[in-house]
Amino acid sequence: MLNVETTSGSRALPCPPGAVDEFLSQPSPEAAAVLARAAGPVLVLGAGGKMGLHLSLMIRRALDPSRGRDAVLAVSRFHTLRDRAEFARHDIATHACDLSDPAAVAALPDVPTVFYLAGVKFGTAAAPDLLRRLNIEMPALVARRFHRARIVAFSTACVYPWVRPDSGGAAEATPPAPFGDYAVSCLGREEAFAAVAREHATPVALIRLSYAVEFRYGVLVDIAGKVLRGEPVDVTTGYVNLIWQRDAVDLSIRALELAGAPAVPVNVSGPRALSVRQL
Fold first, then answer.
1. pLDDT by residue (tens digit) across 135-190?
2. Domain boundaries, the chain
3. CA 190 to CA 265: how far, in whole Å?
4. Which of 84, 97, 149, 237 is deepest in the core (most CB within 10 A)?
5. Cβ-Cβ contacts under 8 Å for 278 (sequence gap 6 or more)
6. pTM of the predicted model as reported, rounded to 2 decimal places
């Protein structure tokens, strides 16, 4: 638990503002041990998203420096959330690639370890063609290309049915029952990787992630901003499950050794449901 109380009673970051990314990418001894045993190089696909830099940097920091700069390769189109220069600043090798392009995917290097973070997120339900292309067809293309690798593929807890806040939440054994086009497309992404696990015995872990948060974005920042501005907070979704982004990245790395065939779902979330009204 972080102690961010200052002597004046105000709140402060537990690190300098310019060192947030380094703070959020500090690997635990357990994650470092998993990566020490993992075959390399490591490919991070979809690294330009909100978690990609921290995942790539945590892997880079945990690996033995003797493996060299190319021990982890961050792949993205690099014209959305994360600029390529941020990766270069942290000495992480990058490769620009459209993962929906079969020729571009075929040209990627053969590697034994893959993290897959790509896809379209919330707010895209009105674009079913986009959902199918990027959340179903693109993962299938990548999964087939890397069927000889060990794969950790990011998914979402949205594939589960709604449950009561006092139920303890959905477990990995809970049968998926996605609600809405976005959630259905995410289950399709899981199936793309599950298919190669069945057909090729590819070790796969499916990270069913709940809301990851950090200092600069996420549910807590959204709620705090509305409260600060005196705006109403939407409580249509009355409860949320949150996890600190550093923990989410760390646990996802450790899931490498949980990967199996058939594909293994892994819930990555906080320990309990939180009331939006109470937050």
1. 999 999 999 999 999 999 999 999 999 988 888 889 999 999 999 999 999 999 99
2. 20-212+244-271
3. 9
4. 149
5. none
6. 0.91
